[in-house]
Amino acid sequence: MDSDSLIKITKAGLKETVCEAWEVTIPRSVQHECVKAARARPDAARIRKNIEATRLTVAPTSAARGKGEDAVLRLFETGAYDAVSSDDARFIRRLRALGIPFAVPGVMIARLREQKAISPGAANEALERLRPMISPEEYAAAALMLTGGKAS
């Protein structure tokens, strides 16, 4: 998971739920971006607590060298992960070009709902908290998924 995705799911109030539903690993550079370099932000403290409680795993340095997305990509290339989570348009284009599976935060909410990890109401509330931080297209896709693919 990259910094952008981690910060957005934290602000949407879903980080703990995501970490319970799926194994989430971040490179040290993402830890630095989200926690050490951003100490004053409230989400930084929540992310740090999840790392300390081992709900969120920080990858060994050798598995994910580099900064940000490059480290996430190297980590995925170790073969130990199913997908990458990002909400950075440039990085997503790169993932698509490389054929790497990825998940954006809005769709993660819908997947959590499909897996019954959150209630329909909680999913809708989380998506609304996320709405100002994501593209209108991502919001529309996630909202459609939450309604079972039916237009409202």
How would you describe what is shown here?
There is one protein chain. Helix content is 57%, strand content 5%. With 152 residues, the chain is mainly alpha-helical. The chain has one domain: 3-Layer(aba) Sandwich (Rossmann fold), CATH 3.40.50. Strands 1-2 form a two-stranded parallel ribbon. Strands 3-4 form a two-stranded parallel ribbon. Helix 1 (3-11) packs across helix 4, helix 3 runs antiparallel to helix 5 (68-76) and helix 7 packs parallel to helix 9. The longest helix is centred in the first third of the chain and has 11 residues, at 42-52. The protein is globular, with a radius of gyration of 15 Å.
Give a brief outline of the structure.
With about 150 residues, the protein is mainly α.
Notable traits:
single chain; mainly alpha; two-stranded parallel ribbon; globular; Rossmann fold; 152 residues; 4 strands
Number of helices: 9
Largest sheet, strands/sense/barrel = 2 strands, parallel
CATH topology: Rossmann fold
Mean pLDDT: 87
Write the layout of secondary structure elements.
Layout: H1 3-11, H2 15-21, E1 25-26, H3 28-36, H4 42-52, E2 57-58, H5 68-76, E3 84-85, H6 89-98, E4 102-103, H7 105-114, H8 120-130, H9 136-146
Helix pairs in contact: 1-4, 3-4, 3-5, 7-8, 7-9, 8-9
